[in-house]
Amino acid sequence: MSLRLLFLLPAGLPVRSQGESQSDNKQMDNITIRQGETLFLSCSQGDFVTHTAWLNRSSILYAGEDKWSVDPRVSLVTLNQDEFTIKIEDVDLTDEGQYICAVQTSSRPRTTSVHIIVQVPPKIVNLSKDLVVNEGSNVTLMCLANGKPEPAITWRMLSPSDDSLSSDSEVLEIPFISRYRAGVYECTASNDIAVDTQTVELTVNYPPSVSDGRDVGVTLGQRGVLQCEADAVPEADFEWYRDDRRIFNGFDGIEIENSGALSKLTFFNVSEADYGNYTCVAINKLGSANTSIILYEIIEPTSSTLLQVETASVLEMTSSDLKQTAFENNDLLEGPGAVQDGNSGTSTVFTPTCLLLIVLLQLLLKF
């Protein structure tokens, strides 16, 4: 029998060599290899080998030293009386299948077969794009992946982290989405070989909500700042009003500064006309919100005002001292050392403290 005819026979069928003995067929254990690695295929030769070859299914890769395969990844490693080894570099899924080493001896043919299993790490091939939706919408995120073994797919909310929002399937459903579900979502595809992850950013639009305004008190002629803060996606635009009249930046020496979620209305020199009620309005494409802020006057105390306050305090203290002195005088009149008026029979006591308080009171009343 020729070598060519021997190779074309299916593995496992009885073959006669020059009418003599039956062929030996050996099945090796499966070999598992990862995609991208290098595969070595080896079989023993033995004595009196006349022909030898490696086959992939029905295609001849090598016949002795002659390469039949046109695949540049396939090459001969060793060929001698004891061993016949070839290698396949950068193994791919198409290389999976049965390989046969056929050896023709002087007496009979011998075949050794092995099944190659190629494992492929997971790769996400179809993922939802970044989404921008309005609050209240129903959202569906999809993630598809290839791999061998078939990868398992999971979804989770990555940032901000929320373990309650997850899925163990290719699809993540989020009904009636709220602003608190906005963030980064992660799809993970995993099998026994490796893990692949990709992310989707989900933006949720919602109308503005404005924090309650804080009234501001400012002294006449000083600098005053009204602040307005709004939460909105997309970010809100701000407008300021005095009564029904809109205020623009630079109007009457007023500056409007907007920075993200915060707007400031600044008066550099507050006048009497500036005091009053102001309205801040935050607007985006989904709606608006407003708040009112009052700019009121703080009156600084003058020197005359301070003197009046001090006089009132002293008078209060003087009144208290006089009462105390009267009680002391009464005790003196009733005591054994009291001086009696001969005509009226009353007692009179003059003390330096009493005289001093009377003089001080007169001086204070002149202011």
From TrEMBL:
UniProt cross-references to Pfam families, sorted A to Z: I-set (PF07679), Ig_3 (PF13927)
SMART domains: IG, IGc2
Keywords tagged on the record: Disulfide bond, Glycoprotein, Immunoglobulin domain, Repeat, Signal
Domain Ig-like per the UniProt entry, residue ranges: 10-113, 122-203, 208-292
InterPro entries: Ig-like_dom, Ig-like_dom_sf, Ig-like_fold, Ig_I-set, Ig_sub, Ig_sub2, IgLON_domain
Gene3D superfamilies associated with the record: Immunoglobulins
Signal sequence residues: 1-19
Family assignment from sequence similarity: Belongs to the immunoglobulin superfamily. IgLON family.
Protein name, per record: Ig-like domain-containing protein
Origin organism lineage: Eukaryota, Metazoa, Chordata, Craniata, Vertebrata
